[in-house]
Structures are given as structure tokens and as C-alpha cells.
Amino acid sequence: MIGYSRMNRSFTKYLANCNSCPRLCRVNRLSGEIGICRITSDVQVSHAGLHFGEEPPISGTHGSGTIFFAGCNLGCVFCQNYQISQEFPRSRTRTLTTDALAAEMIRLQDQGAHNINFVSPSHVIYQMADAILAAKEKGLAIAVVYNSNGYDSVEALRRIRGLVDIYLPDIKYMDNALGKRYSRVDDYADIIPGVLEEMLEQTGLLKMDEYGIAERGVLVRHLVLPGCLDNSRRCLRLLADLSPNFFVSIMSQYSPQYKACDYPVINRTLTKEEYDEITDYALSLGLENAFIQGLTSQDHYLPRFERERPFDSF
Fold first, then answer.
1. Distance of alpha carbon 190 from its chain centroid, rounded?
2. pLDDT at position 305, please?
3. What contacts 36, CB < 8 A, 6 or more positions away?
4. Using an 8 Å Cβ cutoff, are 43 and 127 in contact?
5. How far is CA 142 from CA 117, 198, 305, in A?
6. Tell me: the pLDDT tens digits for 47-105?
7. What is the signed CA dihedral for 28, 31, 33, 35, rounded to 10 degrees?
């Protein structure tokens, strides 16, 4: 931590005129108003447990201590986590206080987790920050992972500087038309470059210990969408321009979930030819620090959040 303590904690004050993400809803979440994410100042958690399905430096051998927040600041029509991101508040969630969330972090650490992995934190970044401070006072000593969709507020990221060890963002689009069509946001391609630059400036490139477990830095994910290969090439080109040494996870696991059936171009799985074309392109850009998947992962990585153990199939 740099200069933060429980005594001067005040991150949630920003929820009174919410600017947690680039939506800039400006609602007073402290008084119960809601914006795009549909979350007030409460902490809504859908699942907290050890997860072994992340990239090897994140899951390691003991698992990543994942905490899945409910709600989302995007509206992806193909979201595989739609049960908790899009169908909130109908989905199963728990409302936690800051101290209760901190206790969950300590519980996961005690279970042997390599890290605390906050999934979809963009819209609850300030509540997350307060909980990290509380957990550190309780003895949290493992790395903190910020696992986001990439549609983050650079200003908010700067405010929490020093509280995150590992950034694990998506880069979904470098085509605003696709972002608007599939995620209901019209400026994703404008936002993501600054987000990646800020994350890189804060933590640097991914660093791992002698066992290959991530300690600090940035690992970027890109989900290849069927029929959208030019978008994938643009995304990878941006990463290579920022640094050819970026660690990037090129994911083949796309499966037409949620409302994808209403969009013919993406209403199918990815072909081997499409995926090979994108991985070959990444190598041609010099992005050699790449994690790749087999196409069998398309079904393997689907969580089931209606179950108490949503990742049993992993």
C-alpha cells in the first residue's frame, strides 16, 4: 500500500456522484440510486471460491481465490456469466459489508489461494478498494488481481493505485461498431488504450516467481469472436504497439450464450481455421508471450452459477 490506511479510507465517497466506470452515470449510489450496473453502494457477491480454470500463472496449483461480483457495466449479448452479470438481481447473490468481503478474502487465503481475484470489479471498484484495505489489516498477504472487462475508468484506477498487484483485463474491441452492437457501449475502442497504458504504468509487464505463479504485472485477455477476425487483429496490434512483451491470453472458448442467437454472425462457435489465423497473426507481431487454448475449451469453460459450485466441470 502507498499511503493508505483504514483510518483515512474514503473510496466509497465517490459513489455519491458515481464515476466508477466510463459510463459516468453520476447517480448517488450511496442513497440507493442505480445506474447502468444496477448496483447501489452494497457489495453484491455471486460466488467466492478457489478456481482452477484461469491462466496457469493465475490458477497455479492451489487455485485462484475468485470473488465474482454481481452486475456489470457492459451488456454483452454473448456473456457466459450472464446469470450474474445480466440477470441480476434475479440471480443468486449475497449482500456483504466491507468487513464481510474482507473476511472472504482472508478465508480464501487460508485455503491456500495464490491470489485474490476480483471478477467484474469495474462498477464496484471503490467498494473493492475499501475491502482490500480492511483485508490487509486482517493479514492479507497474497496478490490482488483486478479481472475486468477492460471498460474501466482511468481516473478510478489511478485513485486505487497501489492496491492491485496484477491486472487481468479483457481487450474486447478495437471496433466501436462491434462494441455498440454486442456490448451496448459506443466508445470501448476509445477507452481501452488508456486503460491498458495505466495498468502497465502501475504494475509493469507480468512477473512470475520461480514456480511460474504471477506476482505482479499485466496479463491481457482477448476472446476471439467468430466472423470478427479483423477486430481481433486490431486488438492484437494495439498490444504489440504498447509492448511486444505483453503477456496475452488468446481465448478460443467463445460459445453463443445468452442472446447471441439473435445475432447471426456470432451465433456459432469459432472454427480452428479462424483461431489459427489469429494466433499466427499474434506471432507475426512478435507477441510470443501468448497463452493459447484448444477448441475443446468452448464447452469446458462454461460456468453454471445456478449451482453452489459453478466450476465443477473445469
1. 18
2. 55
3. 23, 25, 73, 75, 123
4. yes
5. 10, 22, 26
6. 999 999 999 999 999 999 999 999 999 999 999 999 899 887 666 789 999 999 999 99
7. 40
User: Which domains occur in the chain, in start order?
Assistant: 34-300 (3.20.20.70)
Residue 223's DSSP bridge partners are: 251
Closest to 51 (Cα-Cα) out of 30, 40, 68, 65: 65
Q: Peptide bond preceding 121: is omega within 30 degrees of 0, i.e. cis?
A: no
Query: Is the Cα dihedral 72, 76, 79, 82 positive or negative?
Result: positive
- The string of pLDDT tens digits covering residues 186-241 is 999 999 999 999 999 999 999 999 999 999 999 999 999 999 999 999 999 999 99
C-alpha cell at 244: 511486444
Amino acid at 199: M
Look up residue 72 and give its three cell numbers.
456489470
Torsion from C-alpha of 158, 190, 28, 305, nearest 10 degrees: -90
- Distance between CA atoms of 108 and 145, rounded to whole angstroms? 13
